Structures are given as C-alpha cells and as structure tokens.
Amino acid sequence: MSHRSGQYSEYAQHHPHDHGRPFVRRTHSHPQAATIAPSQSGYTIVHAGKQVRFGPVVFWIVVGTVTLLGMWSAATATYFAFRDDVLTRLIARQAEMQYAYEDRIADLRAKVDRTTSRQLLDQEQFDQKLEQIMRRQTALESRATALGTVPDVTGSIRPPSRGAIAPEANPAAPKPSPISDTVIFVAPPDREARLESRAPTRAAPPQNQFAKIQGVDNILLRLQTSLDQVENRQMAALNSYEDGMESRVRRMRGVIGDLGLDMAQLEAATPRMPMGGPFVPVKLAPDAGPFERQLYRINITRAQMERLNRTLALVPYRKPVVGEVEFTSGFGIRSDPFLGRPAMHTGLDFRAQTGDPVRATANGKVVSSGWSGGYGRMVEIDHGNGLSTRYGHLSEINVKVGDTVKIGQVIGEVGSTGRSTGPHLHYETRIDGEAVDPQKFLRAGVRLSSG
Predict the structure, then answer these.
(1) pLDDT, tens digit, for every residue of 251-299?
(2) Hey, what domains does the chain have and what are their CATH numbers?
(3) How many helices (H) and strands (E) does the chain have?
(4) How far apart are CA 415 and CA 394, in angstroms?
(5) What's CA 66's distance to the chain center, in Å?
(6) CA distance 333 to 31
(7) How far is it, in rounded angstroms, from Cα 75 to Cα 66?
C-alpha cells in the first residue's frame, strides 16, 4: 500500500490539476508495464518513468486502428477457417460451368454434324432424283424416236422434230406433236461445285436452308410433271396409232371378205418385193414395260397392214378418173342407146371431157392395148388372181401390151371412140373373165378410205 500511495502522491505533484479525479491505470505483474491516464489535454502513457501524451483525436485514431486491425484479424481467421469450404464450392461451381459449356459445345457440334449429314443426304437424294429424271428423259427421247418411225394409217412416216421444248418452258408456243415432245433443261453444275457452293451455308439460318431445299424440290417436281405430261402424250399417241392400225386392218380384211375374194389366193398372187436377209425371230424382253409391249404389238400390226396393203394394191377399188364421180349409165340391163332395145351393160360409164386422164385402179400388167370393136380404143389390165379391168372409148392410149402399171398411173385419155354417143369412160371389172358390178369395188374403196 505504501508503494501505491507513493506513486499517487508523485503523480499528484506533477499533475495538480487532476487532483480529485479518479486515477486510472493498468498494472501488470511486470515492473515495466505502461499505464494510461486521462488528462485535460488528452491521454498520457506512462511507461518506465517516461510519459507520452496523445491528443483525443490521435488517441481515438489509434484505438480505432487497433480495433479495425483486430476485426480484420478476426475476419481473416474466420476466412482461413472456412476457406476450404469456400474453395470447394468455388471449384465445384467452376467445374459445373465448365461441364455446362462442354455440354453446350457438344450439342452444337452434334447439331452441326446433323446439319452436315442432312445436307449430304439431301445432296445425295437430289443427285439420285436428278439422275432418275435424266434417265427418264433419255427413255422418253428414245420413245419419241421409236414413235417417229411408226407410220400413220395412211402409211406415211412422221419424222420426229428436233429441239422440241416442253410446253411449260414456252407457254406461247404451239404444242408440238406427241412424237417429238422432249424436255430440255439446263443441267446443274458438277457435284464438287455444288458442295463448294453449299459449304458456306452451314451457318445459314434454318429458314433460308429450308427455303433452298423447297426450291430444289419444286424444280424437280416441275421437271417430273413435265416428263409425266410428255409420257402421257406419247402413250396417247401410241394408243391412237394402235387403234388406227387395228381398225384399218379390220377394214381391209372386211373389204376382201365383202368382195368375195380369197385372201390366200390374193397373197399368193401378190408379187414379192426384192428383199431378203437371215431370219431373226422377234423377241420381246421379259422386263419390257407397257410402252415396249404396246410398241411391239403396233409393229406386228404394222407388218400385217403392210402385207394387206400389198395385197389390196391388186384389188381395183379406186376410181379411174379424178374428181367427182358421175355415172351416165350403170351396170346391168339398160336400153341400148343405138337400138333402143334392152341390153346388158357390163360396166360403168363415167361422165368426163375428152382428154381427161384415165388412171389404173390397181397394180397389174397390160394384156390388151388398142382397138377392140365397140370399145373403141381400149386398155385391159390383168391384176392377178382372176381380177382384171377394162377402160374403153379412149381417145389416146399411153401404154402397150406387157407394160407393168401402178395404181394411179395414167394409161390413156377420155374419148368417144367405138360404139359411143359422146365423150365418156367405159370402165369394167371382171373376175375370171366374167363382168361384175364395179360399184361393188368402188363402195368397198370408199368404206376403206373413210376410216
């Protein structure tokens, strides 16, 4: 107690103005511990007999700094205490974000691969469709060539025209013949150029890519439609040819039957054309389509029609004079123009003018040419198989015995020679030497040509 009271009295002597204030100090067991005492001008730190004075502002700054440092130390200690947990969470978060980015990149790569695969697939499908269209166009062109060699019912051959354009390409142009329909279109660039042109479009918007695909599909669809129309017209033309040929063959056979002629005898009497070659049987491919089968039938019918045409070329069913037919006297019993008594008229009298051409009504050979009693100047033509024709009252004769004449060849001129009352043509048709009504043959010819 004496030691403490001595210190107080010493402090009171040096600081008389603090007399009566409570003395505050911090004591430690160590004899050199510092003490802090408030004063009127601030705070005084006493340590080992030394005094250091601080103003209130400085003192509180120091106190505040110490406090902040303590708090910072506490926070740092807390951070380091929990930093493992924080780092773990941060690493987990970063890993999660990385995985998310990797998944996103993988999805984008998958989409790019799918898009590329789809483009390649579309390209392959386009190439296949285009190749199919090209093959189909080639087939249609070959069909058009085959149709161009098919004669119509009159026997003429229609040559196929070149460079025909599909109606869709030129709507203002007249429609071409079905046998010459051809689709012309510009072929696309080669595969490499198309792939190079498509490469920059991988990143294009899906709408644009879809529009391009639709545009290509529309072009292919229009080409397919055009080819369908050409094929339909070709099939229609082929059906028309087949129907026409079959109808004509039926009429030819009907004419021969109506005239009471023997088809076998007519064919035997038909002179053979100079032709030959090895016999090659006609074969139809097992995989032939409808067009090829129909064309095969048409060729068979055409061969039959050609044979019938050669046979009918020996049948006198045509008119001997050109122009409208006007009979002045028919076949059968009539009043004789000179005697006025009933008489048999063995032919037809055609009204005509002197000098009008007289034509052969069928192929044959001249067996008589010259003056022949009441016929006057007369020409007789043997057509074979017992058929013959006579042309009387001619003013001029242009053929001689032994000449071979063709259908429509001028054999003389109309006149009024022999037993005649005026210029006209006396025309007879005979079978095995017997006169028959020529109108029977003429009517058969009209029926045959009308079809």
Answers:
(1) 888 888 888 777 777 776 666 667 777 877 777 777 777 878 888 888 8
(2) 2-54 (no CATH), 327-450 (2.70.70.10)
(3) 7, 15
(4) 5
(5) 94
(6) 185
(7) 14
- Which residues are within 8 A (CB) of 309 and not within 5 positions of it... i.e. 6 or more apart? 155, 252
The string of pLDDT tens digits covering residues 355-367 is 999 999 999 999 9
181 burial (CB, 10 Å; 0-12 / 13-18 / 19+) is buried
Taking residue 426's Cβ as centre, other Cβ atoms within 10 Å add up to 25
Task: Report residue 322's pLDDT band, with 50, 70 and 90 as the boundaries.
Answer: confident
Q: Is 280 helix (H, G, I), strand (E, B) or coil?
A: coil
Task: Give the other-Cβ count within 10 Å of 349's Cβ.
Answer: 23
Sequence-distant (6+) residues with CB within 8 A of 370 are 377, 378, 397
Length of the chain in terms of residues written: 451
Q: What token pair was written down for 56? A: 């209130």
Kindly report the CA angle at 220 between 219 and 226, in degrees rounded to 5?
90
* Rounded Cα gap, residues 133 and 152, in angstroms: 30
Contacts of 342-348 with C-beta under 8 Å, sequence gap 24+, read: 346/428, 346/435, 347/390, 347/392, 347/426, 347/427, 347/428, 347/429, 347/435, 347/438, 348/426, 348/427, 348/428, 348/438, 348/439
pTM for this model (two decimals): 0.53
DSSP state of 306: H
Amino acid 123 reads: Q
CA distance 364 to 380: 10
CA distance 91 to 214: 49
**Cβ contacts of 188 within 8 Å, gap of 6 or more:** 130, 194
Coil, strand or helix at 106 = helix
The pair phi, psi for residue 178, each rounded to 5°, is: -60, -25
- Nearest Cα to Cα of residue 366 among 389, 336, 393, 400: 400
Tokens of 335: 């009043």
CB atoms within 10 A of CB 40: 8
Q: What 3-state DSSP class applies to 389?
A: strand
Distance between alpha carbon 274 and the CA centroid of its chain, in Å?
45
Identify whether the C-beta of residue 176 lies closer than 8 Å to the C-beta of residue 164: yes
Measured over all CA atoms, what is the biggest interatomic distance in the chain, rounded to whole angstroms? 207
Are the CB atoms for 325 and 319 separated by under 8 Å? yes
